[in-house]
Structure formats: structure tokens, C-alpha cells
Amino acid sequence: MTNDFKITIHMVSSLDGMIAKKDNSISWFETSDHYENGIELTEEQTKEFLKTIDCYIMGSATYEHALELSKSYGWAYGEVPTIVLSHRKLPVDKKNIEIYSGDLYKLVREQLRPRFKNVWLVGGPTIVKEFIRLKLVDEIRLSILPIILGDGLPFFNQIEQEHLLHLKETRTYKSGMVELCYEIKK
Amino acid sequence: MTNDFKITIHMVSSLDGMIAKKDNSISWFETSDHYENGIELTEEQTKEFLKTIDCYIMGSATYEHALELSKSYGWAYGEVPTIVLSHRKLPVDKKNIEIYSGDLYKLVREQLRPRFKNVWLVGGPTIVKEFIRLKLVDEIRLSILPIILGDGLPFFNQIEQEHLLHLKETRTYKSGMVELCYEIKK
To answer: Domain limits at B80?
Structure first.
């Protein structure tokens, strides 16, 4: 039964591995590239795919950034249960958002495994690093956009551990985005 | 005529963007992964491809590392003209190797363009950064191996400039390596 449970790290980065600009602006996500042989998902397909995710996990900075963006674009994670890892008291204005501070093994064992199947960890680098180091991650899904940002927040904080990966899937989109999906070997 | 001339950056990196381990060991290049839907080049195809490269450029640390490796595996760049960028006096024991120190625009204009068509810049990060910042690079070809190294030498030193890219090609190999080829928009 527990074999159905999976934690996936998902991030969108520039070719030079940045996931955010220093000023936190997000217009770089809209690339102007066109890759003829790429695929394109319909809104319907994207919706169907997103439906398979039944929990999001994020760090406090990612949460605060998402809150900020929600003022202009709405809350990006919909009604899906979302767990924010933080020791701070953060504003919460939705029933599906919980703040958690404590042992991550315990979080996974007692809160995630019994309730969810397809958990997505959406950043930032500190949380990504902790989860990888504790070997709590099953998959990494990295979407690389056709841009060099030059500076900003790097996706991979030095993990300080070696991990072998298994390439599961690659997808190339008409927008020039390349999606790489890896399993972390255990 | 000069439109035929191209400078390509080529690097092999881990998923976390490292191109070398701290101890400089290279066994991680031999991945144990297997990606069923990937392609595989024959030795013949690889040879044919390498023949199209008519000049290599590298920094002094990359050169010294290649020299070190040549003791065990032979000189990796064959008889192809190779220019090492360095202010230091470095040992040179092959006729096809030159040391250059000076203006990079001048190098490209006076030495590379008149003599070569397909120049490959093979590292390291300092040289990569300088060439990108001076807008002397036409293409970036990044081969990502299925591994997280955790620390080491990062491919992209903070470039401190934004560059839009155009995705030209992606290839996925049976070994789990993914090759991404981008044009730097000018």
C-alpha cells in the first residue's frame, strides 16, 4: 500500500539553475522561444495532470511569495492540502493550508503517508536540500526554461551528498521548456 | 562567409550543475543508469561528429586537468588545434597546442574566425563566464548526467547578465544522459 506513496520535488529553473530572480519578478517564466518539435498541453490536459497531486509542501519563503502573487493571480495551489514548513507564525487564510514545524520523518510517516499519495515539494532550496539529505524524496522533476538568469536563487543549494538518479522521462515543449524527470535511487 | 563560424560551449554536468568533483575524479562520468527510450551513438558516429570540431579552447585549470588525465587515458583532444587561455607559463608538449593570453575579441577576430569554423569551448567556468559576458558564444551544449554530486565546481559561475536562449535540439541517451543544445540570442 505504502508503495503508492511518492514525494516529488518540482521546480522550474533557468539553464543556469536559478529558480528566482533577486527581485522575485516572474515575467521570465513567459519565454518567447519556439521549439518546433515540442509538445503542447491543452489546458484540459494540464488540469487533469494537476488533479493527480493531492498535497503540496513548501518552505516559508516560497509560501510568502505565493501569497504575494495570489494578490494578482489568485492562489496557485487551489483547494489542494498544502503544508508550509516554518517555525514562524505565518498568516493563513485558507482551510487547506497548515503550518508544520518539527521532525520531517514524523511529518512523512504520520501526516503524509496516511493521507496522501502524490505529494509535491515545490521549494525552496533549503527544504529541497533537507528532504533530499534525509532521503525522503522519490522523484525530481525539473523544468528548464530557455534562459540564463545570471544570478538569483539557485535550485540546488550544495546538497553535500551524492545521489544516483534514474532518468524516467523527458519532455520537450513548444515553448522551449525541457522537463526532466528522475527517480532518486535508494 | 563569417556566418559559418560558430563558438559552442560544451560541458557535461550533474543535475545539480557541477562539472567536477572536489577531488577531480571522473568515474562519475560512467553512469549506471539505463533509459530504455534513449538513443545510442556508435563509435563511428561519435568519431564523425567529433571530426566537425576544428578547434578547442579551454582555461588553464581545464588544460592541466586534461594533461593529468592524458597520463592514464591519452590526450583527449587528439590533433585538433587547441588554444589554452592562460597568463601562466604552462608546459606544452604538442604542436597543436597554443597558449594565449590577451584580449578575447582579438583572439576571435584575428585567430579563430580566419582559421576555424566550429570552435568548442570546453571549460572551465571562468572562461565560460567571460565568453558569455562578452557575447562571443553562439551555442551552449549541456549534457546532464543522471546524478546529483552535491558539491564541486559549478558549471555556471554567476554570469550576472540575463541571456535569452533558443532551444535547438534535445537528445536523450540510453545511458540516461540528456543533451540540451541552445542558441544564445543576440
So the answer is: 2-22+34-103+135-184
Print burial letters for B35-49: b (CB count within 10 Å at least 16), e (below 16). Answer: beebeeeeeeeeeee
- b/e map B121-135, b = 16+ CB within 10 Å: bbbbbebbbbbbeee
CB atoms within 10 A of CB A94: 12
In a domain, A32, yes or no: no
pLDDT tens-place string over residues A155-169: 888 899 999 999 999
pLDDT tens figures, B29-44 = 998 999 999 999 999 9
Phi first, then psi, for residue A49 (nearest 5°) are -65, -45
Query: For chain B, how big is the Rg over CA atoms in Å?
Result: 16
Nearest Cβ partner of A159 from B148, B167, B182? Answer: B148
ipTM, 2 decimals?
0.95
Going from the C-alpha of B147 to that of each of A9, B65, B70, B152, B176, the distances in angstroms are 15, 21, 25, 13, 10
CB of B26 within 8 Å of a chain A CB? The answer is: no
CB atoms within 10 A of CB B118: 15
Cell of B95: 604542436
- DSSP E strands: which ranges in A33-134? 55-59, 82-85, 97-100, 118-121
Domain assignment present for residue A29? The answer is: no
Please check whether residue B56 is in contact with residue B73, taking contact to mean a CB–CB distance below 8 angstroms.
no
B168 within a domain of the structure (yes/no): yes
Domain count of chain A? 1
Nearest to A182 among B28, B146, B184 (CB): B146
Does residue B117 lie within any of the structural domains?
A: no
Residue A171 sits in a domain of what CATH number?
Answer: 3.40.430.10
Give B176→chain A minimum CA distance, Å. 5
Separation between Cα atoms, residue B66 and residue A167, nearest integer Å: 29
pTM: 0.95
**Residue numbers in B near A166 (CB within 8 A):** 33, 35, 146, 176
B115-170 pLDDT, tens digit per residue, is: 999 999 999 999 999 999 999 999 999 999 999 999 999 988 889 999 999 999 99
| Mean pLDDT within B92-113 | 96
| pLDDT band per the 50, 70, 90 thresholds, residue B3 | low
